[in-house]
Design brief:
This protein has about 500 residues and is α/β, with parallel strands linked by helices. The chain folds into 3 domains: about 190 residues, Rossmann fold, CATH 3.40.50; about 100 residues, Rossmann fold (3-Layer(aba) Sandwich); about 130 residues, 3-Layer(aba) Sandwich (Glutaredoxin). The chain is about 40% helix and about 15% strand. The chain has 17 helices and 14 strands. Helix 6 packs across helix 7. The longest helix has 16 residues. The relative contact order is 0.09.
């Protein structure tokens, strides 16, 4: 067993070299005694999910075959993880990426994809997975984009055959693995790993899990398809469920291929709340931070373990990380504020408590007079008619960022004089400007905002001025263009901990 903190010293030419080679980890507390229960944690991929493998495999295969041209836009329908993986690969390789995604999937995933440079086109939740897939097909056909077709693309399954499957065989040599437990989404992991196990470890039984209220495989009902293998309609057995990305509203062609090849030994239905419970249990008892789909697969592994004889070895796939689920029921009841127990811990010592007044401020220092150069610079910035909106700010300050969000939302062009930035460090220029600002405004706080030479004030004053319409009047008087249709409470832009209680 590797020692804690063991360093490999590996070097990579780029981020894509870190895809795969995820660890197999023994479960020590949650499994029944006498059973060798392991998990393969795909959260160790660079974008924290098993779909990183798919993304790299499909893009590199498309490059090799010429299906993807240099600079061509890539498009795919995704519940999130495939899109995040594709965004990483496309960012590194230089391809624009557009993903289509049903609006019902977690907002964290949208933000991650956009952060990585992708464009995210949402589709109505009522149209389910087939709706976002059909939108991706429309966009590809209209614009000549490369559609990755993750649900039918053999490069998906082949990547798992060449990487995931071989890693599992290396971890369990000589037929040591009795059961391999997985879910299905695209079917790439299922088909690719199952093929590898069937060739080299035929005694390993393959267990596939799906939601109990959306048992597409368990229903025995046929999936209707187009000639290219994509689904033509939603599967009649589909119902909405908690496991995002685990079972879409259709059976993918790759999943159907695995069934036709008779790779699957058993299909196990999983209850949604049990998936949530076990995801939390993995975090709180094993220190393994995973999403709902991982908790669901782990539930299937425990069902197998409960009936298995002593000495049985089971490997369970954990597809992704828990951070993808912050806005989902997985984090329901996880408090942002201190609980009663935490408040009790706070009160067990006398200082640094919200229920106690803060210590008295230190005695005021002797007033420092502003330097003429700082005053001159400040006045020139305030009076600049080319940039009539100016904010004296700090780069790190959350009040300053809240005002920036206000300006950005309104589309206001502005100048930010960031007093703590490198540009104002020489000769202590930033500190000297703060002295000049205080002398002019009578306020030592940052930010301080001016419009058309008139002092608006700090963050709260700027928010009040927007809420009561005074800021808009100043902007118009200074001929500053802005989005006049915006109507909202500016205080909603504050971080939650700064918002009025």
């Amino acid at each position: 067993m590797p020692e804690s903190g063991n360093i490999s010293g590996a070097r990579y030419d780029n981020i894509l070299g870190t895809v795969g080679n995820t660890p197999v980890i023994r479960i020590n507390k949650l499994g029944p005694p006498g059973i060798n229960l392991f998990v393969k944690s795909e959260a160790f991929n660079p974008m924290s999910s098993v779909k990183d493998r798919l993304a790299l495999g499909i893009i590199e295969h498309a490059e090799k075959t010429g299906a993807l041209k240099p600079g061509q836009t890539v498009v795919e329908a995704t519940s999130g993880n495939t899109g995040i993986g594709l965004a990483m690969v496309c960012a590194q390789k230089g391809y624009p990426l557009v993903v289509t995604m049903a609006e019902s999937f977690s907002v964290e995933r949208r933000k991650l994809m956009r952060f990585l440079g992708a464009k995210v086109v949402l589709t109505p939740a009522a149209e389910k997975g087939t709706g976002m897939l059909n939108k991706a097909i429309e966009l590809a056909e209209k614009h000549g984009w490369f559609l990755t077709r993750q649900f039918e693309n053999e490069a998906n399954a082949d990547m798992h055959y060449r990487t995931t499957g071989q890693e599992i065989l290396a971890a369990f040599p000589d037929g040591e693995l009795d059961y391999w437990v997985t879910g299905y989404g695209t079917g790439g992991t299922l088909k690719g790993v199952a093929k590898a196990l069937n060739e080299k470890s035929p005694g390993t039984q393959i267990i596939v899990c799906e939601p109990d209220n959306s048992a597409l495989l368990g229903s025995g009902k046929r999936q209707l398809r187009h000639d290219n293998g994509s689904p033509s309609v939603s599967h009649e057995a589909f119902r909405p469920h908690l496991m995002q990305g685990w079972t879409p509203d259709f059976v993918s062609k790759l999943t159907e291929d695995a069934l036709k090849e008779e790779y699957v030994d058993q299909v196990v239905p999983i209850e949604g709340q049990e998936a949530v419970r076990l995801s939390r249990a993995l975090a709180q008892q094993e220190g393994i931070f995973v999403g709902i789909s991982a908790g669901a697969t782990f539930s299937g592994a425990l069902q197998v373990a409960a009936k298995a004889p002593e000495g049985t070895t089971i490997l369970c796939m954990l597809p992704d990380i828990g951070e993808r689920y912050l806005s989902t029921p997985l984090f329901e009841g996880i408090s942002e504020e201190m609980t009663e127990e935490e408040m009790g811990i706070s009160k067990s010592t006398p200082g640094y408590r919200f229920d106690k007044p803060s210590a008295a401020p230190p005695a005021a220092a002797e007033e420092v007079k502003p330097e003429p150069e700082a005053v001159s610079f400040m006045e020139e910035a305030i009076a600049d008619t080319e940039q009539p909106v100016v904010m004296f700010a700090l780069e790190w300050c959350e009040f300053c960022w809240s005002v920036r969000k206000l300006f950005d939302r309104l589309g206001i062009p502005y100048r930010s004089v960031d007093l703590d930035s490198v540009a104002y460090q020489k000769d202590n220029k930033g500190s000297k400007l703060r002295v000049a600002l205080k002398a002019r405004t009578g306020l030592a706080t940052i930010p301080q905002v001016f419009v058309g030479g008139k002092h608006v004030g700090g963050c709260t004053e700027s928010f009040d001025a927007f809420n009561n319409g005074e800021l808009q009047k100043l902007l118009k008087a200074s001929n500053v263009a802005f989005d006049e249709s915006q109507q909202f409470n500016a205080y909603s832009l504050l971080p939650k901990w700064l918002q009025p209680r």
